[in-house]
């Protein structure tokens, strides 16, 4: 089964966010504001994005 890709963009700073949220941002490969990374569209990455929707957006 061919998996699609999702583009994830960091739109808010995780500075004042809890440590768990900061670890999720780093594990997604995001370092700078407005940086976009492309990840496989799997439940793992969808779950990470769902945990911190106030910091990220999905780019289409």
Describe the structure.
The protein is an alpha+beta fold. It has one domain: 2-Layer Sandwich (Ribosomal Protein L30, Chain: A), CATH 3.30.1390. The chain has helices at residues 19-27, 43-51; strands spanning 5-10, 36-40, 56-59. It has a three-stranded antiparallel sheet, with no helix packed on it. It starts with a strand and ends with a strand.
> Distance between the terminal alpha carbons, to the nearest Å?
21 Å
The amount of helix comes to 25-40%
Give the overall form. globular
Contiguous runs where pLDDT drops below 50 for at least 5 residues: none
Q: Give the C-alpha Rg.
A: 11 Å
Brief account:
Helices cover 30% and strands 25% of the residues. With 60 residues, the chain is an alpha+beta fold.
């Amino acid at each position: 089964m061919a998996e699609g890709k999702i583009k994830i963009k960091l739109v808010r700073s995780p500075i004042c966010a809890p440590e768990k949220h900061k670890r999720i941002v780093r594990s997604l490969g995001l370092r700078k504001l407005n940086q976009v990374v492309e990840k496989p569209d799997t439940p793992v990455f969808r779950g990470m994005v769902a945990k911190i929707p106030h910091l990220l957006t999905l780019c289409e």
